[in-house]
Design a protein that fits this description.
single chain, 188 residues, Tetracycline Repressor, domain 2, elongated, transcription regulation, TetR family transcriptional regulator, Tet_transcr_reg_TetR-rel_C_sf
Length: 188
């Protein structure tokens, strides 16, 4: 039985599919969606470009399956509401921030695709908006959660653009100052 499109028994097909996904993930993060071709992905793996399409169907499906925006945000929701703003900023700046910024840049550059835009919205809803909204009390909780999401996107975009006036700020100071701005929306 064959392993077309990643289905069927494990073996060579599963290994090839995983290698394609790994190469695509790196190339999309480095060059964006438009700057990454199926040929480049295939060349990175050492296979014929037709195999990329065989395993994933299209470049867009490959992008949607491989690009992830891990948000280490869950831990921020543990603790008192009075310091949630700072915890959110700290969580967003923690972990592998350069990788997160590169992935976010790839997603932004690919946002002309309806499917990619929908995937980005879905990721944001599940990993950030819904859990945050559950933490917020008072009126306009959904609106406030979305505005906090917009604040965090703005910060990450500015950092991803290497704004020297932000990238050289001590992390603790950035967390404290930006955390207060986020906290204003948390408090409502």
């Amino acid at each position: 039985m064959s392993n077309v499109a990643g289905h069927g028994p494990s073996g060579q097909g599963a290994t090839t599919r995983a290698a394609i996904a790994e190469a695509a993930s790196h190339l999309f993060a480095e060059h964006g969606y438009a700057g990454t071709s199926v040929r480049a992905i295939a060349a990175a793996v050492g296979i014929d470009p037709a195999l990329v399409v065989r395993y994933f169907g299209s470049k867009e499906r490959l992008f949607l399956e491989t690009v992830r925006l891990p948000l280490p945000i869950a831990k921020a929701f543990d603790g008192p509401l009075e310091s949630l703003g700072e915890r959110i900023v700290e969580a967003m700046l923690s972990g592998n921030l350069p990788e997160r910024l590169a992935t976010m840049g790839a997603l932004m550059r690919a946002s002309d695709s309806d499917a990619v835009r929908e995937k980005v919205r879905e990721i944001g809803e599940l990993t950030f908006i819904h859990p945050l909204r559950a933490q917020l009390a008072g009126p306009d909780a959904d609106l406030r959660a979305r505005l906090i999401g917009a604040q965090m996107n703005g910060l990450l975009i500015a950092l991803g653009m290497d704004d020297d006036r932000l990238t050289h700020v001590e992390r603790a100071r950035l967390v404290a100052v930006y955390g207060r701005a986020v906290q204003a929306l948390v408090d409502g």
